[in-house]
# Entry
Amino acid sequence: MIQSENIRVEYAEVLEVQPVYQTLTATRTEQHCDEVVVKPSEKKRKDRPSRWDRFLASVKGVFTSDDDEEQGEVKSEPIETDEGFKLNCRSVPVEREFRRPIAYDVDYVYKGTRYRSRLAEDPGDRLRIRVSIMPFSGDLAPEPPAATAADPAQ
# Structure
């Protein structure tokens, strides 16, 4: 006759929780600008653009090709500031690393015996465990062979 397993739920005391991290690398494009000092002779007088200049700039923007920007390459264009500097800006790929926990190695003790398990979540101070009790039958584990007098290993 095969006896069924006796199962109950108990709680173990958590001793230590260590997160297991996954490292992800992401790349994004950021704009970096270098300041270049403009000599007073190079500095142009800033006038307010006329209506005609604004109209031409908007029409030019419609008909210019954005092929470079679609491929992830942005042209470097100097921008003049009021303080006498030119900003030479360009887009640069920047790599960043992110770490996120994917599992937790949990050390816990139940009835004086220490155990370790990898869990999907942090259990807190107590860990709910499944305790299974079943009578041992000698048929489950084979016994080691008996040594004989003719055995040369003795």
Notes: The helical segments are 51-63, 67-70. Confidence is low (pLDDT under 50) at residues 68-74. The two ends are 41 Å apart (CA to CA).
